[in-house]
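Protocol step 4 of 6: record predicted structures for both targets in the notebook before any analysis. Target 1:
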Amino acid sequence: MLKKILLLLACATATYNVTAQIGYGYELGAGMSSMRFAPEIGFTKASKKPVFSGKVGGLIDASVTPHFYIQTGVYASLKGQQRNFSFYSSDSLNEQVAQTLHLAYADLPINLTLKTGTQGKGRVIMGIGCTLSYGIGGSNKLRSSGVDSGIAFNREINQSVRPKAPLKAFDIGLNLFAGYELPTGWFFRAYYTAGTNDLGLSTEIDKNRMWGIAAGKLFGKGRNINQEKDDLIDKSE
């Protein structure tokens, strides 16, 4: 599925009309993030909770046809998860772990966007695409307790996230979104991104999930019909 989407986007970009109108703008989103998660082989129990997530960045809005657009840009995003899991072999060897991950990423989204109606008027927007992500930081807070060879232990770790510590850095996400674009250039949309890469090391499974609501504004020819009308007025009169 992801390969087909990438191929479709590549074809659309290759056939892009150089005279097409190109818009630009910014976007801010907030929501929640979680993961498809399974600890290393041997775990006996696991639970998870979402954490706050968000994204902010600049985007380019390039028309391919009057209703189809390629949207891309550069974003910073925050993802992660809270989880609790345990390992139990015997009364003399067991461990309980509580972990909170906050993961910071640099994102490059590439989306094929459908817009109904006419540019410069209110339009329903919806799209599909992918996001290339690379981990640039974050925090890993981990607390473990239990018994090892009959000796009780209690450990706390608070470390910065680095490539392969505790997860792989590169991710590819599948994007889905839908919303509305106003004649003023403002737009609002609900979004969902599902990571397709397993970021876990060894036998652990970790796949990002992020969803939320975003707002932004587009500039450029035809993106703000009200402003363009104002600019045509001779203010000297």
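Target 2:
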Amino acid sequence: MTERIGVYPGTFDPMTYGHQDIIQRACRSVDRLIVGVARNAGKNPLFTLEERVQMARADMASLNNPHGATIEVRPFDDLLINFAKSCGATLIFRGLRAVSDFEYEFQMAGMNARLSGEIETLFLMASERCQFISSRFVKEIGRLGGDISSFVSPLVRQRLEDRWASLPGGS
């Protein structure tokens, strides 16, 4: 039997419990899931690519994975479709929180299908408990002193607090 490989790409700046929810659910459909951490300099990430990969790997090591899929974390700085091909993937997983996410994701899925018809995009709706979580909001809430412990792992929370303390004007 051929191993089913999927890719779940993102900037993960930082990884949230919403991302982890999609990862756990994607593992139901594949034997191996590659969490692709994109360089994505256009988003001006708070953490370097290496830091985001390190945090994602730490979160994956402690993730409850009842479906037994192997989870790997890899950085990439390429077209998503080329990265997926290099991983041997036949599926790309994308999470949708709201209707506002759909238009962009739909266009990206169409472009990826045109670039490679062998790789399918599967959309997973965010779980009810995670629909409102976004990395952008987590960073803003935490930067302003709000409690982000219900949105990110303890490791990520600590890394965010350390980063803000090291910035000019940080506490």
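Step 5 preliminary note on target 2. Residues 99-115 form the longest helix (17 residues). The CA atoms of residues 30 and 128 lie 23 Å apart.
Proceed to step 6 after PI sign-off.
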